[in-house]
Specification:
Blueprint (H helix, E strand, L loop, with lengths): L1 E11 L4 E12 L4 E5 L6 H9 L6 E10 L2 E2 L5 H7 L4 E4 L13 H13 L3 H14 L5 H4 L9 H14 L4 E5 L7 H18 L2 E5 L3 H7 L2 E6 L2 E7 H6 L4 H8 L40 H5 L5 E4 L2 E3 L17 H5 L1
Parallel strand pairs: 3-8, 3-9, 6-7, 7-8
Antiparallel strand pairs: 1-2, 1-4, 4-5, 9-10, 10-12, 11-12
Length: 335
């Protein structure tokens, strides 16, 4: 359904052009959930915005293709993009307050999109909007329709955004941290709603999140991003059982477990993600990797397939049979 092929995204600042995402490739099939994980600033949201054509006037896809069916999204007209957005591809944005228009009521904003894409009359569109608000767990839905965004809590605004995104039953749903502002019971309800939509219509989902628990529960395949690049891709079972990249291993090792002793400390990855203007030479993770070699500091590795469906961007994969840590299951690594 969607293929992102060697995409490079750059932004024009006052003095120079800055590359935010480089050489990102992945594909999504109908009815599949692809999880994208990584630290803040790794390029997850920028990649999703490029699919929607929402990079703004300073952002541009400099290289690569974004194919949605037979259409190249980086080359279609703005009019065609408007037809695709909300109808064929919907997005749940990370911050609902900047996505909802503050001068229109919730009802006005929902009804406008439903009438535009589903060709409903005003009365039917209003009834359908109330139905969608009820589905995402919003109480007093008919009253909420009359409210303005500022009158709602962050969690309520997020649920409104989710209802708007699901209303047109899109072919592809991009969910950027969809449950961040929600309590645990509503999180489960929203994820179940998304899965029900998927079962009924073969909707593909790109789920962007920091929560590895959500990924384990909902994703079919996972890509791990670091500093604007994909560093590992695998099906969800392989990634959790046998992570190969040192960064992925660090993420897995940082998850707290019920069986930990009281005094046992969580594993942490030293340092922080480099800024887009301070990308290190060679492997972008080498400044934080305890296994880095001189080659890692000088040469940038490619994303290579090490077995069917499992790709890793790491020079140490060539030394994996001799390496004391790489390739070990998570439990052994944590120990």
């Amino acid at each position: 359904m969607l293929e992102v092929d060697h995409v490079k995204i750059a932004f024009q600042s006052d003095k120079e052009e800055v590359t935010s995402v480089e050489e990102v490739s992945f594909a999504v099939n109908p009815g599949e959930t692809l999880g994208i994980v990584g630290e803040s600033g790794c390029g997850k949201s920028v990649t999703s915005l490029s699919i929607m054509g929402l990079l703004g006037k300073n952002g541009k896809v400099k290289k690569g293709q974004i194919l949605f069916g037979d259409e190249e999204l980086t080359k279609v007209s703005e009019q065609r993009l408007r037809e695709i957005r909300g109808n064929e591809i919907s997005m749940i944005f990370q911050e609902p307050m900047t996505s909802l228009n503050p001068v229109f009521t919730i009802g006005n904003q929902m009804i406008e999109g439903i009438k535009l894409h589903l060709k409903m009359k005003s009365k039917d569109a209003k009834d359908y909007a109330i139905e969608m608000l009820n589905k995402v767990g919003i109480p007093r839905a008919s009253e909420i329709m009359k409210e303005y965004p500022h009158a709602l809590s962050g969690g309520m605004r997020q649920r409104v955004m989710i209802a708007m995104a699901l209303a047109c039953k899109p072919k592809l749903l991009i969910a950027d941290e969809p449950t961040t502002a929600l309590d645990v019971t509503i999180q489960a309800q929203i994820l179940q709603l998304m899965q029900n939509l998927q079962k009924g219509s073969k909707t593909a989902i790109i789920l962007i999140t920091h929560d590895l628990g959500v990924i384990a529960e909902t994703a079919d395949r996972v890509i791990v991003m670091y500093a604007g690049q994909v560093v590992e891709e695998a099906d969800v079972f392989t990634l959790f059982k046998d992570p190969k990249h040192p960064y992925t291993q660090g993420l897995m090792a940082s998850i707290p477990h019920l069986e930990y002793e009281n005094e046992q400390r969580l594993v942490s990855i030293p340092g922080s993600v480099p800024g887009v203007k301070q990308m290190p030479k060679g492997c972008r993770f080498h400044t934080r990797c305890q296994y880095a070699t001189e080659r890692c500091q000088q040469e940038q590795p490619e994303l290579e397939q090490i077995q069917e469906g499992h790709k890793v961007r790491c020079w140490l994969m060539e030394e994996a049979p001799l390496h004391p840590v790489l390739g070990k299951p998570k439990e052994e690594l944590v120990t």
